[in-house]
Design goal:
The chain is of the alpha/beta class. Helices cover 41% and strands 20% of the residues. The protein has a single domain, classed as Rossmann fold (3-Layer(aba) Sandwich).
Length: 343
């Protein structure tokens, strides 16, 4: 029998890439999205040209509408991607941030608990649940920040420290997802994602920095650096991320109730300044910069230790960061008409 998956936030960048992947694998795909984020209508238009899927225009804050679709579909898996995704936006409007990320995730969990308890729930969390990690020693080497001692990156035993309204709301969602497995016996997992990038990503200054820098560089738009640009992240291509989703779903019994750090790992790190230098080299340009203060809760370094997810699923990244960014440059150059909203 054909497997079914609901993807909340399925018209977003990760959502449409996930929808195409699972549809190509033979899954029946149902997308739930309120289309509030820029680019979602364009993403749906593209996806319709690629695969068949069911679309439900629903805001996850609407519990009644959400339960109706979950109860009707009774999916084998629910990939929960719908979220408010920017730290700066959460500081400006913490109530909306809470209602989308915390209450919205609670609604998803309750809809499954009440109407489809056999569904496996995969929650997209964030490395921001670890806060600024002020107890972890950071040093500057070769013009970039690095961990002094964590050569393999941060593992899941690192102390949680929800910093910023965004960190708090996503942290609530993260912990509720784990606890619904513990208390109610649901099959759940939460992935604490580092920096994800790739095609169909309409990045902006305060979220999706790899895509935003690439888009802005290609289109010669202003780029602002928050902090000094020496902060590094492990970056992960969306194609690798979607493979991780599949690996987790395929091991749902084994991973249930667990949290996993997921990113590019120590082999795929890049600082903001290093990305800009790479873009200048690839595009043959000089990129002018503006500078601003550090954002609340911004970590000078975040690199995932991938040992746990490798142990549970045998997944690991395959796409080198330079190869991935080069592909992103090609996509932006070929789709400049998608960015007419940029002034």
């Amino acid at each position: 029998m054909q497997k079914k998956i609901i993807i909340t936030g399925g018209a977003g960048f990760i959502g449409v890439n996930s929808a195409k992947y699972f549809s190509d694998k033979g899954w029946s795909v149902v997308i739930v999205d309120n289309l509030s984020r820029r680019g979602t209508d364009l993403n749906l238009q593209w996806l319709r040209s690629q695969v068949e899927f069911q679309f439900e225009k629903i805001d996850i804050r609407n519990f009644k509408e959400l339960t109706t679709v979950v109860g009707s579909v009774k999916p084998d898996a629910l990939l929960h991607l719908a979220a408010q995704v920017a730290v700066t936006t959460s500081v400006t409007d913490p109530r909306e941030d809470f209602e989308i990320n915390a209450l919205g995730t609670f609604n998803v969990l309750e809809a499954v608990r009440i109407h489809s308890p056999e569904t496996f729930i995969l929650n997209a969390s964030t490395n921001k649940v670890y806060g600024k990690m002020e107890g972890v020693k950071v040093v500057e080497r070769n013009g970039r920040y690095e961990y002094q001692d964590l050569i393999h990156g941060v593992n899941e035993r690192e102390q949680l420290d929800f910093h910023s309204p965004y960190g708090c709301s996503k942290g609530v969602a993260d912990q509720y997802t784990i606890d619904y497995s513990r208390i109610y016996g649901l099959k759940t997992a939460t992935l604490r994602q580092s920096c994800i990038y790739g095609t169909r990503q309409f990045g902006i200054e305060d979220q999706g920095w790899v895509a935003w820098f690439t888009i802005a560089a290609v289109l010669e738009k202003q780029i602002t650096i928050y902090g000094n640009g020496k902060q590094i992240r492990d970056v992960l291509h969306v194609d690798d991320l979607v493979r991780a989703y599949e690996a987790v779903i395929n091991n749902s019994d084994k991973v249930s109730g667990q949290a996993f750090n997921i990113g590019g790992g120590p082999d795929n790190t890049m600082s903001l300044l290093e990305l800009l230098s790479y873009l200048e080299k690839e595009l043959g340009i000089d990129i002018p910069l503006q500078w601003d203060d550090w954002r609340p809760g911004d970590q000078p370094v975040f690199v995932c230790n991938l040992n746990k997810i490798k142990e549970y699923t045998e997944w690991e990244p395959k796409i080198n960061v330079e190869v991935g960014v080069r592909d992103l440059i090609t996509w932006v150059k070929s789709n400049k008409e998608l960015f007419t909203w940029l002034k």
